Fold:
Amino acid sequence: MKNSRITVFVALFLTALLFGTVGFSLIEGLAFLDALYFSVVTVATVGYGDIVPKTTAGRMLAIAMIVMGVGAFTGVVANGAEMVLNRRDRQLRRQKMNMIVGIFFSEAGVRLLGTLLAGDRTIEDIRGDLIIQANWTKRQFALSHKRLRDYTGSIDVRSYDLEEIRSFLQDKGELILRIFENPNLLEHESFTEMLRAVLHVKEELLSRHDLGSLPQTDLNHLATDFKRAYIELISEWLHYMEHLKAHYPYLFSLAIRKNPFDRQASVVVR
Structure:
């Protein structure tokens, strides 16, 4: 909508300049460059006075230029400034959002991801695409994202310590809820959906008193919930790693050494 608005103002401004330039050239006998110059200073309300209309028709044209062109010129300036301020505001909100994502993965996400991937029976199909290296390019991240879009995973809930996962999610519940309540999440729909999926797993586990004697039908139901949260968690983690690579190389170095998909990963620098 805003882009359409500034497009209209730019079109009106250029039309006014063209109209004025041609008109002053014909009516006042000005050279093209002088006519363009006079049109610009007229619509910009600068009015140096070095060129003035000498004919009645020229004065009428100048009046028309002021009426038609000044509004368009003001609209271009105002909307251009608004676009710059909005872009800066979006950048600030994006920075805050990335900080929130970083807090989530630092405090809960990476550990949760490591726990869930242990129950993925087909993880070897994609593990190699998630062992991120320090020299990865945007193309390599894009290829991993593409591979991940086609990956469904196969979760074996019986391999999980459900009591431990429930306790962990309950312990991190307040953190996740505070992140979820942050207004900056409105611009990060995929991360919001991932949090919803994780919170849903938490609620499912908290709603069951005895996690050790669940029937297979209920385990199959939980597997669906776990898989949804797991796949979305991987996707957001990959975006997060790409962000660190582009903006925070020192944090990226640590994140690589804590990569839950890399069996050889170690925080100790060797």
